[in-house]
Amino acid sequence: MSIIPKDGRILITGASSGIGEAYAIKLAGRGHKLSLLARRKDRLEALAQRLRSDFSADAETIVADLEDAVHLGRLEERLTRDDFSGVINNAGAGGLGFLADSSTQSVERTVTLNIVALTRLSRAALIAFKRKNAGLLVNIGSVLAHAPSPGGAIYSGSKAFVLNFTRSLQMEFAETDVSIQLVMPGPVRTEFFSSQGMDGSVFPAAAYLSADELVEAALAGLENRELVTVPSLPDLQSWERLETIRREFLAATMSGKVADRYGAGDPALE
Ligand SMILES: NC(=O)c1ccc[n+]([C@@H]2O[C@H](COP(=O)([O-])OP(=O)(O)OC[C@H]3O[C@@H](n4cnc5c(N)ncnc54)[C@H](OP(=O)(O)O)[C@@H]3O)[C@@H](O)[C@H]2O)c1
C-alpha cells in the first residue's frame, strides 16, 4: 500500500511551475485530491483544468502569497481545521546576491518564504496530523544546504534551516504514523534561475535533472520510507558518511575542555 494517504487533500505550495507543478501532475495521476497554491492565478487555473481533463482530478486552486502574513495566517488556520492528508512545502526562492548589496526587503522576503512560511505551515499541518496520528509532510530543501557560497548566504542558510528543522521534526514524530520526508534536489531545470535573472549556466548542463525526474525519484524515495531523499546522489553511502561525521563531530565537542590548540595550560602562552 502507498505511504501517501488518499483520504484528504494534499496541499502543494509553489504549484504554478517547476517542481511543484511536477508533483501536482504525478499525484493527480495517482488519484490524489489536490490543493494547488501559488501567486499566479492564471497558471494555477490552467494546471487545475489540465489535471481535471487528463485525470478527472479533484484539484482546487489557492491563490496566496506566502510572504503575506494575512494569507499565511488564513492557510495555517485552514490546515489545522480542515482534513488535509498531506502538505508539500515546495515554494521557495533564491534570494541570491551579496548580503551587503541586498535590500532589507529582499532579504526579508526570502527568509519569510523559505523559512517562516515553511515553518508555520509545517507546524499547522503537524498539529492536525498529530491529532489523527496520520499525514504526510514533505519539505523541499536543497543540496546547497551543504554549500555556503558568496552570494548564496540567504539561500544556503535557509536550506540549512530546512535540513535541520525537518530532521528534528522526524525525530519528534518517530514513534507515530505521521510521515515526514526531506527532499534535497541538486540542480533542476525550472524557472527558478530565470525568475532571478540568471541563465541556465549556473551549473554545468549535465548536472541538471528535469522536474519530472526529480519528483518521480522523490516519490520513489518516499515509498521506500526514506527520511531524506537526494535524487541526484548516485551512492547513498555519501549521505550516510556525512551523517556519521556529523554525529562524531557533535560527540567530540562534548569534551568539557578547551582544545590544546588554544593554548589552555600552555605556560608559553600565558
Ligand atoms: N531548481 C533547482 O535547481 C532547485 C534545486 C534545489 C532546490 N530547489 C527548491 O525547489 C523548490 C521549487 O523550486 P523550482 O525549482 O520548482 O522553482 P520555480 O519553478 O521558480 O517554482 C517556485 C514556485 O514557488 C512559488 N512561489 C514563489 N514565491 C511565492 C510566494 N511568495 N508565495 C507563494 N508561492 C510562491 C512560485 O509561484 P508564483 O510565482 O506563481 O507564486 C512557483 O510555483 C524551491 O523551494 C527551491 O528552493 C530548486
Automatic annotation (TrEMBL):
Name the record gives this protein: SDR family oxidoreductase
Q: Is the keyword Cell membrane in the record?
A: no
Identify its protein family: Belongs to the short-chain dehydrogenases/reductases (SDR) family.
Q: Which InterPro entries match?
A: NAD(P)-bd_dom_sf, Sc_DH/Rdtase_CS, SDR_fam
Lineage runs: Bacteria, Pseudomonadati, Pseudomonadota, Alphaproteobacteria, Hyphomicrobiales
Keyword Oxidoreductase belongs to the record: yes
Q: Which domain of life is it from?
A: Bacteria
Source organism (scientific name): Mesorhizobium zhangyense
Provide the GO MF annotations for this entry.
oxidoreductase activity
Task: Quote the cellular component terms of the Gene Ontology held in the record.
Answer: membrane
**UniProt keywords, alphabetically:** Oxidoreductase
Entry-linked Pfam families? adh_short
